[in-house]
Specification:
Blueprint: H1 2-27, H2 36-56, H3 62-85, E1 87-89, E2 92-98, E3 101-103, H4 105-124, H5 138-158, H6 163-179, H7 184-204, H8 207-217, H9 228-239, H10 251-254, H11 266-299, H12 303-327, H13 345-361
Antiparallel strand pairs: 1-2, 2-3
Helix pairs in contact: 1-2, 1-11, 2-13, 3-4, 4-5, 4-6, 4-12, 4-13, 5-6, 6-12, 9-11, 11-12, 12-13
């Protein structure tokens, strides 16, 4: 069964990547704003990524346990380095250039946080149980140390600014913390604290971030400014109707009405050209991959693999839900890509590593 599970997961990954390439080709078709080289670059990444995912499925996933703190420390250095020699683009300083290639450390930090939290709670050696009163280390080991491991990179990423990724790290922390078997009083206390901190978050947000939240409530308050993208996105998706306008025939896409259609809003291209049927097919692939990933989590009895796999599925599912929610106007725009579909080398690379890890676990029942 595990061999079949691996093949099904791998097939779904390939199908999603191919759908992304088809949509990206359309987004760059005869378009000076989105050059064709973006498609070819993603095509190369896709070919290498598919091979890497399959190779990682035979890699000893416990090596990730050994590298967790090292990878985390290196990423922290990169995040600090961004403020010294990072590159500005689209109003943010999120990228570091290596030999002509732009790399976004905050993307790799997603995986780093998952691994470091999984290792930390594994080293605490509690039993995976939701009925335990507390871990052996008490309040300090239960909450404050892992919270610091997450909040520190969150603040660095928020400063770039990148609100979406920062909030994703918090989501990972909450899920892994709950799954680790922490005392309910600590867990609920954290949730109450986060709720109380929401007004403070508003006060430290950038003006454009506040505008995005306001136009989420009513895009028409600034239809030619902050609300323009979401208005055009909903027009694109709605105009696709049931069967879509056809590949390369989407007017919002081809006539340049839709901004960021190769990255955050690539689902708008799919909705316009392939309609409800094409969109539903992609959503079905995502849903099946997430459910099979949860099946892998359920089968994994070794603590590190269990928590890491759960973190990977959590961030994958959250990013899919938030990105598509942005496109449909159901979530504020926070600048998150659609996994394996949107253009972005750093994001694509990180999800390759994550899904390779997951595919590795699907080959076995890790009981030791």
């Amino acid at each position: 069964m595990n061999g079949n599970l691996k093949k099904i997961i791998f097939t779904l990954i390939v199908v999603i990547i191919v759908i992304g390439l088809v949509a990206l080709y359309s987004a760059s078709y005869q378009n000076i704003r989105v050059p064709r080289k973006i498609f070819y670059g993603q095509l190369v990444m896709a070919i290498l990524g598919i091979g890497a995912i399959w190779a990682l499925s035979y890699f000893d996933y416990r090596k990730f346990y050994d590298m967790a703190y090292i990878l985390y420390a290196v990423n922290i250095i990169f995040l600090i380095g961004i403020f010294i020699f990072g590159r500005y683009a689209l109003g943010a300083k999120r990228w570091i250039e290596f030999f002509g290639v732009n790399f976004q450390p905050s993307e790799l930090m997603k995986l780093s946080v998952i691994l470091v939290l999984a290792r930390y709670f594994t080293d605490q050696k509690p039993t995976i149980s939701f009925y335990r009163q507390s871990l052996k280390g008490g309040f300090w080991a239960d909450l404050l140390i892992p919270l610091f491991l997450v909040v520190f990179p969150m603040l660095l990423i928020f400063k770039q600014p990148d609100l979406g990724t920062a909030l994703l790290l918090l989501g990972i922390f909450v899920v892994i913390l709950y799954a680790s078997g922490i005392s309910y009083k600590y867990f609920l206390g954290l949730l109450v604290f986060c709720a109380m901190a929401v007004p403070l978050l508003w006060s430290v947000m950038k003006p454009y971030q506040k505008d995005r939240l306001l136009v989420f409530l009513n895009p028409n308050i600034d239809p030619l400014g902050a609300g323009y993208t979401i208005i055009q996105s909903k027009i694109a998706v709605g105009s696709g109707q049931i069967f879509g306008k056809g590949w390369l025939a989407g007017t919002q896409n081809q006539l340049n009405f839709l901004p960021e259609r190769h990255t955050d809003f690539i689902f708008s291209v799919i909705g316009e050209e392939w309609g409800l049927i094409g969109s539903f097919f992609l959503l079905s692939c995502f849903f099946a991959l997430i459910m099979l990933g949860l099946n892998v989590v359920e089968q994994t009895k070794e603590k590190f693999g269990y928590l890491a796999a759960l973190g990977i599925i959590t961030i994958f599912a959250l990013q899919v839900i938030i990105n598509i929610g942005m496109v449909l106007g159901l979530c504020p725009i926070v600048g998150l890509t659609l996994p394996l579909v949107s253009y972005g080398k750093s994001s694509f690379l990180v999800f390759v590593l994550m899904l390779g890890f997951l595919l590795n676990l699907s080959r076995r029942r890790t009981i030791f």
